[in-house]
Automatic annotation (TrEMBL):
Gene3D superfamilies: Luciferase-like domain. It comes from Sinomonas cellulolyticus. Keywords: Monooxygenase, Oxidoreductase. The keyword ATP-binding does not apply. It comes from the Bacteria. InterPro entries: Bact_Lucif_Oxidored (IPR050766), Luciferase-like_dom (IPR011251), Luciferase-like_sf (IPR036661). Residues 1-307 form the Luciferase-like domain. It holds the Pfam family Bac_luciferase. This is LLM class flavin-dependent oxidoreductase.
Length: 346
């Protein structure tokens, strides 16, 4: 099992109502990546959004900057909004990132949650699903073939015909890792299994809600003839860890409430502490607590879903950088060793 962090680069407003500048958030993200690399974490992911309240509309560029500041940590997206991107451009960018980083690039491809990129790049939101499925198929073909032929017909969406088109440069890795990011749609789990690609799942609620969906993924993969080793499952959760559970919850609550109220969006004061405590309690999707408490919940998710990756979503709300960095340090120094020890014993 490997471990990492990811962030969307939210530009949450401070108590005065002023949003954090994108330059500050990008600088903090590069510093967090260096810290995660030094502390021995395995992967960092950056999300793609096309809104004024997020810093990363081009995460691959920030990942390239991180590549030059780190030594070993793997570099991925969380997610690349493939529905409104050109698969050839995506592959070339990440092949270049793979070269720059010495073979550390990955892609988590997803359909995206927000609709802003569809009108921005001239796509019809009504083709949300078809665009993604066709573009993912084309992206996977580009991974396997240095020259690609692609039909343009009534069944295909969002890409013109290609005739023995060169897809260059080629990455350092023999097969650039491409994951499929999913929410809670059963058909997405089935299609990920049929394609034989690893699955990344955002756990915004407890893992018990995803047992049947992950089983659908593995069953579809097995029926399509894919080996179990190719059907990896990774999960990510909103995350904050401190020395004690009480300290973690007391520190994080006001900042997370600001995040929820600004990003859902909800009126101020409509995310009370009792809701936060319920989300952070047993069966909830919010991982906030002491190192032992958080480790126990990661282990429980691993045992239930058979996960091989966990990524903590950090940088949420108005939490200052120093507290975020301390949480990442505790994650690497205490939580990860506890989980690894438990898995080794099992």
């Amino acid at each position: 099992m490997d471990f990492g962090i990811f962030t969307f680069g939210e530009l949450t407003r401070d108590p005065s109502g002023t949003p954090r500048p994108a330059a500050q958030r990008i600088d903090e993200t590069i510093r967090l990546a260096k810290l995660a690399d030094e502390e021995g974490l395995d992967v960092i992911g950056l999300g793609e959004h096309h809104r004024h309240d997020f810093a990363f509309s081009a995460p691959e560029i920030v990942l390239a900057a991180i590549a030059r500041e780190t030594q070993r940590i793997r570099l991925t997206t969380a997610v690349t909004v493939l529905s409104t991107q050109d698969p050839a451009r995506v592959f070339e960018q990440f092949a270049t990132l793979d070269i720059v980083s010495g073979g550390r690039a990955e892609i988590i491809a997803g359909r995206g949650v927000f609709p802003e990129s569809f009108p921005l790049f001239g796509y019809d939101p009504a083709e949300y699903d078809a665009l993604f499925e066709d573009k993912l198929e084309l992206l996977l073909q580009m991974r396997e073939q240095a020259n690609v032929t692609w039909p343009a017909d009534g069944r295909r969406r969002g890409h013109h015909a290609l005739h023995d088109a060169a897809i260059a440069p080629r990455p350092v890795q023999e097969r650039l890792p491409i994951w499929r990011g999913v929410g809670g749609t059963p058909s997405s789990f089935v299609r990920a299994g049929q394609a034989g690609v690893p699955l990344f799942l955002a756990l915004l609620s407890g893992h018990q809600h995803f047992l049947r969906l992950v089983e659908l993924y593995r069953t579809a993969g097995a029926q399509a003839g894919h080996p179990a080793s190719s059907l990896a499952v990774g999960t990510g959760s909103h995350f904050y860890v401190a020395r004690t559970s009480q300290e973690a919850r007391d520190t994080f609550y006001p900042h997370y409430a600001a995040y929820i109220e600004q990003n859902m969006p909800r009126p101020a004061g409509t995310f009370p502490r009792e809701h936060f405590d319920a989300w952070a309690g047993p069966g909830g999707g919010l991982l906030v607590g002491s190192p032992a408490e958080v480790a126990e919940r990661i282990i429980a998710t691993h045992e239930a879903l058979g996960t091989s990756r966990f990524m903590a979503q950090v940088g949420l709300g108005t939490l200052p950088f120093a507290e975020t960095a301390e949480s990442v340090e505790l994650f690497a120094a205490e939580v990860v060793p506890m989980v690894k020890k438990a898995l080794a014993a099992a």
